[in-house]
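Lab notebook, bench 4. The sequencing result for the construct came back, and we need a structural model before the next group meeting so we can plan mutations. Quick request posted to the team channel:

Model the 3D structure of this chain.
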Amino acid sequence: MFSRARVIVLMLGCLSLWARAETQSGAEQGLEPDVAACMEQALADSDPSMTLGELEEECRIELGYLPKEKRSEARERFAMEMRTAWNPFVITPHNANYILPYSYVWDPHEDPYETEYPGEDIDSEEAKLQISLKVPINNRDLLVENDAVYFAFTLKAFWQVYNHDISAPFRETNYRPELYYLMPISNLFDNADSAVAFGIEHESNGRSQPLSRSWNRIFVNYYFAKDNYLISFRPWYRIPEDEKDDPNDAKGDDNPDIEKYMGHFELMGTWEQNRYEFSLMLRNNLNRPNHGALRLDASFPIWGRLRGVIQYFNGYGESLIDYDHRIERLGVGILLTDML
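Done. Here's the predicted structure in token form:
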């Protein structure tokens, strides 16, 4: 009699032999050896609902076998994400992930910290970092082909690492969970990719009064990608909150005028050329007085998967605590994952 453990081992062994046989038979039918090897690896990493034909297409995209007119940088990233989306040892990036060990801020926002650090100044020099991840909740093809529901989480932190007068604290940390549905859509442009996301998000700095800042939004995000560039347009609607009777009350709206500074949309464009990537983000309230923000990122290869990045920000809303204060920042650091 075989034990249950031996039966499981035999089943896994048979599955491995079947996978190898499939890829070997594919090679005999004309598949390039590297495509066959890619498919064999993908069988262990990818969504179990994917067909061998879909795996072959994604491997051909990743390895550069598809004609240039059928490829885009965004499509290649999407293909690689799909391959590892269901691998329990891989976490998929959402927005860019980076660490700026050094940045300089002109006219830092001192007012919110007068009570917390009386008589001390906020340094213009500080570190900044962002960690952004996502995970699919359902298998693909929920309503249409290749759609999915995602949960995403972005953490952005500002660290007074050079300010030893106040024990180098994390000055501000923003937490942004999102739940959204992403659907590929057809477009009128040849050889282009587009998608639309519908979601809801909460963003807060997790602080108590008087430093508490937060808001909730419903958003739509439209993506358009062609060749080596990606454009996204993200309008939103802020979910209203009750007014506070007292500014120090824990209940109610911490920042009722936030839309005057953060605006009603975000427009972002990313362009990649010869492993150099440039990104521009714009926000605006389209009102008077006019408030908005601009962020420029330029990244370049350093070694292996590590990339350097230079980031410039000018405007409102870089962090929640600074939403109503104009910030100008220049920083340099390491980019862990980019947009394309």
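Residues 29 and 326 are 62 Å apart (CA to CA).
Will bring this to the meeting.
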